Amino acid sequence: MIIHNCEGESVTIENKVIYMDNSATTPVKREVVEEMIPYMTENFGNPSSIYEIGKISKHAVDKARKKVADALGAEENEIYFTSGGTESDNWAIKGIAFANRNKGKHIITSSIEHHAVLHTCAWLEGQGFEVTYLPVDKYGMVSPEELKKAIRDDTILISIMLANNEIGTIQPVEEIGKIAKENRIYFHTDAVQAIGHVPIDVKKMNIDLLSLSGHKFEGPKGCGSLYIRKGTKIDVLLHGGAQERKRRAGTENVPAIVGLGKAIELATAEIEESNKTLLELRERLIKGLLKIPKAHLNGHPTQRLANNVNVTFEYIEGESLLLLLNAKGIFASTGSACNSSSLEPSHVLTACGVPHEIVHGSLRLSLGKMNSEKDVGRVLEVLPEIVQRLRNMSPLTPKEYRTI
Amino acid sequence: MDYSLKVMDHFSNPRNMGSIENSDGVGEVGNPACGDIMKIYLKVEDNRISDIKFQTFGCGAAIASSSMATEMIKGKTLEEAWKLSNKAVAEALDGLPPIKMHCSMLAEEAIHEAINDYLKKKGLEPWDD
Known about the structure:
The structure holds two protein chains of two kinds.
Chain A: E1 2-4, E2 10-12, E3 18-19, H1 30-36, H2 52-72, E4 79-82, H3 85-99, E5 106-110, H4 115-126, E6 130-134, H5 144-150, E7 155-159, H6 173-182, E8 186-190, E9 209-213, E10 224-228, H7 243-246, H8 254-269, H9 271-289, E11 295-297, E12 308-313, H10 318-327, E13 330-331, H11 347-351, H12 356-359, E14 362-366, H13 373-393
Parallel strand pairs in A: 3-13, 5-6, 5-7, 7-8, 8-9
Antiparallel strand pairs in A: 1-2, 4-10, 9-10, 11-12, 12-14
Chain B: H1 5-12, E1 25-31, E2 36-45, E3 48-57, H2 60-73, H3 78-82, H4 86-92, H5 101-121
Antiparallel strand pairs in B: 1-2, 2-3
Helix pairs in contact in B: 1-2, 2-5, 4-5
């Protein structure tokens, strides 16, 4: 196929494109797009307006809210639409912290959270709050025992993600929820990566707040939700109009909300079937990649998202790996510092104890609906050559792992 | 990462990649923890770099800078090679993204290390940066 680079020059890519970065984002499903279109064209009304097309928009938003609530086992009036995962995390954490600071100033989170959680917590530390960052084991798992030990009299919030975006490790959320409830502490979970992969019941799991983002499950970008359990004491993050029951101001992003509703309905209905397919592909991919010498699996072998593969190759660096994969039409991601604008290697892999020397050689392949067995076969055919090529180039590679 | 076509060319088809047995000077700079290491091997004849090879662990910019830098100083005198700046390497690559400029720095440093290694082996005073 031929694609165009930023200068508009065409670049030929061998074979078809294989997109294996579904944890970064997903394409919007055709039927989701079709549901959205009328709300950009004829049904463009502002849901706050009382005339007919305003009411149509309001009903569409309400319908989407019901779908999100159903997907989580929540009530409709516990669902608030936001601009995405980052806003939901910010609102949940800052909102709980400030509304409950007369009760305490201590927050517990983990060292492998998304930056939307970690940087929010770091900012709160500057505002006088105290934060405990729980360590994880080598699989990226938070220990409920460690959590219990970290709880203080002034702990007001526990924020632990449901599934990790880099290594796919699924946390014992139900157990964490139970501990939070027993200690009367609010429990927030970032479920951005989990929707459509892990069945969620906020009541059974004792979750008080849950963040999600539409574009991770074939919905549109720029739209997410925060579930807030009824009776939760939380401050407003965005002040302004009376939208979202006066808790989140700003004209509703109606088409995106409609899309999010449709996408979450489809994603949750298909969990079992989709996980079955993804799991087979994942296991085949992991098995094949670990045949490469000095390759290691990151994350938990079984308690992991059905679509997540994360492997480290010693002696090579991830950005080079991505560039060579890109040249073969395979799109993936890495935890290498050289691929980040901060020049910091993955905090998740570092927290799992992956040595600094090899943390740069990580590769994340996150599978999606469009990936087939053929794609997995193609990746397994291409990757060993690429790894070998970079190893031959690296001064770190011992003689026995060189071919030239 | 937005790389120039020249960076992509040198990254995809690196020039002078490999090592030299019985080299006259070797320079290695960088740190695996930071994600890049560059190693330069020199062969020197009549004060000129008659052969040069590199091995690099690092990103696209690091590999392309190594390739370009070795091409620029092959056949040059040691004095000329010493003067090769990271800016010149980056310019020859039609520029590097600002965050990747330090990768071209690595090439300059590795060449200096290799030249000084050669001088030391010859019993000569190493040069100052």
